[in-house]
Every structure is written in C-alpha cells, then in structure tokens.
Amino acid sequence: MTPVLEAVKLGKRYGRHQALVDCDLNIPQGRVIGLVGPNGAGKSTLLNMSCGLIKPTEGTIRVLGAEPAANPAHLAKVGFVAQDTPVYGDLSVADHLRLGARLNPTWDGALAQRRIAQIGLDPKQRAGRLSGGQRAQLALTVAAAKRPELLIFDEPAAALDPLARSGFLDNLMEFIVDLGASAILSSHALPDVERVCDYLVVLADHRIQLAGDVSDLLSRHYRITGARSDFERFPVGVEPIRVEHTLRESTAIVHAEGGLLSVGPWRVDSVDLEELVLAYMTRANEGTARIVPMSTEAHR
After folding, report:
1. How confident is the model at residue 83 (pLDDT cuts 50, 70, 90)?
2. Of 23, 152, 8, 3, which Cα lies nearest the Cα of 64?
3. pLDDT at res. 167
4. Residues 135, 93: contact at Cβ < 8 Å?
5. Cα–Cα distance measured from residue 296 to residue 279, given in angstroms and rounded to the nearest whole number
6. With bands split at pLDDT 50, 70 and 90, how would you rate the model's confidence at 146?
7. Residue boundaries of the structural domains of the chain
8. How much is the pLDDT for 199?
9. Residue 84 and residue 135: Cα distance in Å, rounded?
10. Which of 133, 143, 158, 221 could connect to 79 by a Cys-Cys bridge, CB 3.0–4.6 Å?
11. Tally of CB atoms within 10 A around 157
C-alpha cells in the first residue's frame, strides 16, 4: 500500500538556520499520527512541506504517493488546518461553505451542512464573531468537507479550553471514521495525542527521534528502577534512553526486548506515552541523541 507520508533524507534550511535534518519516515495509510516535539523542532516545517506550502532543501517527500501539491487533483486529497485554525473573519459561516464548494471539486455540501447544524453554528454568523472553539470547528468542517484522504492539523486545539478541545477531538475522530481518512495531528498536549493517535512521531533537535505504532513502541520500552551501581552497565541489546539518579535510587527509561531485562537486579515496569516522549526529547535536548528507528515503517 502507498504510504501516506514518505520522507527520505529530508531537510529544510532557512538561510543559516537548519529547521529539519536528515529525516526518514514511511508512514502507512489508515493511521492517526501524533507529531510531537518542543517548540522550534521543525514540526510546522514538516507539515508545511507535506502540504506543498514550502519546498525541501535536501532529500525528498511524498504524500499519498506523489509530490505534495503536485496538481489540483492531489491538492483535493489533502485537508489542512494551520495553527490558530484560521478562518476569514469578515465572511459568514455560510460564505465559508460556499467558498469551499467553489474551490474543491470533491466538496461534500451535505456533510458540511450536517456538521454545521450538529455543532450549532448560525450560517449567518460572521466567523470573526465566533468563539475559539467555534472557529476551530468551522475550520475542521471546511477541511473535512473536501473529503480528503489525509487531514493535517498543526496545533489546532492549542488555544482552546478543555471543553472546546474535547469537542474538537470528538468531531475530528468522527470525521476520520466517516471519511476513512488518515490524519496527522501536531500537538503539545500529550493527553490529546494519547487519546486519538495510534502512530507516533517524535521530532526534536530538528531530527526524527522515534517513529512507529504506539502499541509497538510502548511494548518495547520500560522503566527500570534500582541502585545506582545497577546502572553502570546494561545487557547487550538494552539501550538506555534517559537515566536519572537520586540519593535513594536510580531510574532509567530503556528500549529493549522484555526478556533481556529479566536478568538484571532492577525492578521493571511499563511506561506510558508521556514518559516515552519526554525521555526521547530530553535525550535530544542534552545532545546525546542516537537515532534508532523503532519500527519498520520508520526506516524502510
């Protein structure tokens, strides 16, 4: 099956600033992908390249089997909601739907009208007078009514309160199911990623640090706890990602097959998504990152 997103040695430079370096990805279709990382890591750059808004400096990127924005037909396959869920403040809700119908050959007017009614938006209301949550829902509706094969969201719920964020995520998942689409969600809110995403990409220090199915990644990482002396050497095949020492005990997040840890003197526990992401981000921030793809999709 054609990957939803494929990047090979992908890089982007703005003048002397390197925004992305040597990024390899191979993400299968039908996934809800969480893209996480600190500010300035290159998340928006990667998403903008995926939409064809900017071009790479090095390497290649293909979305749904073609160069991003290769032609009008390919543009129709991708729905994009940028940061702050931009809408046209002087246009009404109905104006947005009419504009969407004129610009998109695959526009589903019935879907758009149904969703607007479901979330209680007044078609005559100007977008500039909507709440943040309502603007986000309008932007989501316009993107989804294209009936794209891929939906891309760049921090769409960052400015929303918890109730509005929850409603947005619920509607996002309903659209994905209705459309049978893939989705990429960039977010700082790890609980949001954990709630809706089944594929994870961690981007830090301008590089892909980790990529793969969430369930597979969690099954191959562990938290081990023991005395400081227990952490001086690890068995072959056990890769420490993050190690912390206190006066009483030491803790490490490691990548390993479960059986390799049974011979150690430490206590072994599973990790959650937040621990996993923070471990890789911390390692990258400390300048000790060693890039090890965690799934076949990450490096094929």
Report:
1. confident
2. 3
3. 85
4. no
5. 21
6. very high
7. 30-56+64-203, 220-293
8. 97
9. 9
10. 143
11. 26
Burial of 268 from C-beta contacts in 10 A (0-12 / 13-18 / 19+): middle
Q: Please, how many CA atoms are within 13 Å of residue 119, restricted to the half-sphere of its CB?
A: 27
Confidence at residue 233, expressed as pLDDT on a 0 to 100 scale = 85
> In this structure, are residues 32 and 182 in contact, taking their beta carbons and an 8 Å threshold?
yes
**Residue carrying structure tokens 């809408």:** 87
Task: Supply φ then ψ for residue 3, to 5 degrees.
Answer: -60, 150
Long-range pairs of 43-48 with CB within 8 A, sequence gap ≥ 24: 43/154, 43/186, 43/203, 44/83, 44/154, 44/186, 45/12, 45/19, 45/20, 46/7, 46/10, 46/20, 46/203, 47/80, 47/152, 47/154, 47/184, 47/186
Task: Give yes or no for a contact between 135 and 87, defined as CB atoms under 8 angstroms apart.
Answer: yes
Q: Topology of 30-56+64-203 in CATH?
A: Rossmann fold (3.40.50)
For 107, other C-beta atoms within 10 Å of its C-beta total: 20
Nearest-CA neighbor of 258 among 275, 238, 240? 238
Q: Identify each DSSP E strand in the chain by its residue range.
A: 5-14, 17-27, 32-36, 58-63, 78-81, 150-154, 182-186, 199-204, 207-213, 221-226, 239-245, 250-255, 267-270
Q: pTM of the entire structure?
A: 0.88
- Amino acid of residue 235: P
| Strand pairing class (17-27; 150-154) | unpaired
